[in-house]
């Protein structure tokens, strides 16, 4: 679901859609809350605009963080089969690699 689709649903005050990732959920809930606060007169339009920009900026950063995290998990999964071989080797490179992997270095 695109960010624009998420915003349309949030503006309508819809229920939280299924299958959104963490960044998208936060975007939806933040925008739904923002639209609600604006429409009820709790915040003026200029403040709502500023807050919407900030919400989108965080959404972009959260999306990027999520992608990096998923990419890291995928790399870890791909390297997992090598861990036993690396643990069995006592060369300097493998020992250092393991120490970094285990957070010792
Ligand atoms: Zn080695």
Provide structural commentary:
Helix 2 (22-39) runs antiparallel to helix 3 (45-88). The model has no long low-confidence stretch (mean pLDDT 95). The protein is mainly α and 105 residues long. Helices cover 77% and strands 0% of the residues. It has a domain at 3-75. Zinc ion binds at residues 89, 91, 93-94.
Task: Please outline what is shown here.
The chain is built from four helices and no strands.
Largest sheet: none
* Proportion of residues in extended strands: under 5%
Average of the residue pLDDT scores: 95
Helix proportion range: over 70%
Class from helix and strand fractions: mainly alpha
Beta-strand segment tally: 0
Oligomer: single chain
Number of helices: 4
Which ligands occur here?
zinc ion
What are the segments in which pLDDT stays under 50 over at least 5 consecutive residues? Answer: none
| Helix-strand sequence | HHHH
Radius of gyration: 22 Å
Calculate the terminal CA-CA distance, rounded to whole Å. 41 Å
Shape: elongated
Please outline the helices and strands.
Blueprint: H1 3-11, H2 22-39, H3 45-88, H4 92-101
Helix pairs in contact: 1-2, 2-3
The chain binds zinc ion.
Zinc ion is lined by residues 89, 91, 93-94.
